[in-house]
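B., you asked whether I could sanity-check this one before it goes into the benchmark set. Here's the sequence:
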Amino acid sequence: MHDNRDEVLVVHLGGLGDVCLAESVFLSLLRHFGDRLAALGSRRFLDLFSTYFMKTYGVESRHWLYLFSEKLTGPDWRRIVFIGKDRQGAIRRRWASYSREELIFIDMYPEGSFPDPEKAAALPYERLHIEEYQLQQLQPFGVEPSRAEIIPGKPGPVILYPERGFAKAKWPPESFLALRDRLEGNKIETVVLKPAALNLPGEGMVIQELMKVKEFFGQGGIFVSNDSGMAHLAGACGLQTITIFTDFDPAAWHPRGRNISLKLNSDNVGIEAIGEILEDLLARQADRP
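And here's what the prediction gave me:
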């Protein structure tokens, strides 16, 4: 049986964007604990940051049921780090029994920064970026916070990522296609990155494996999208990002790295306006030595 007693289990059950925003926490933990980190969550997302971990585990495995059941027990770890939400503290109390050293809990985001549609107004909160909010929580545990460096990507095509809004309003796919036509009419290289479930006319790159998308982002470019996990991955890969927000606060949730944030119903989020922003960015890139 595998011996976990000298390993640090980092539990992150969030989505793609949440995992991207936690990269600096992963780096800080690696520098503090050394090569002892094992990650638990969605392997599709955690494997994008595999350099920080000895191994990654998928939470869907039955092996991990003991963490979520009152009836089952499991192995101890040297330390458990939980990055997530635990408003009542029940998860921390349960998992502390499997952590030989004090469990480290990193609250994923401040209350009020995540819009609640059932409330008339969000709770007031300190408008820190999520990365900074998480890093500030490390020092009480003796972990020195380190910010992961994002190396600016190379010049490249404009990458458009359209999505269909379901739970919240989004800049519609038709607007992305109109922007593509405007850019291509001005001889600007454009790629449409398509979610597999979204049927759109014209050529494009259909998302299959996130690791291949990461490799594609590594070639450079400018990424235009709604507020999405893919925008956070693009920013983490060094792309200049233009992100269109609806309900969420860009000050807290914008992608890391070079980002221009636009807010629907507040900023000018029209085809011409975004086209002009892109042309200005491309002109600046062309002027660089």
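One thing to flag: The longest strand covers residues 79-84. Otherwise nothing jumped out at me.
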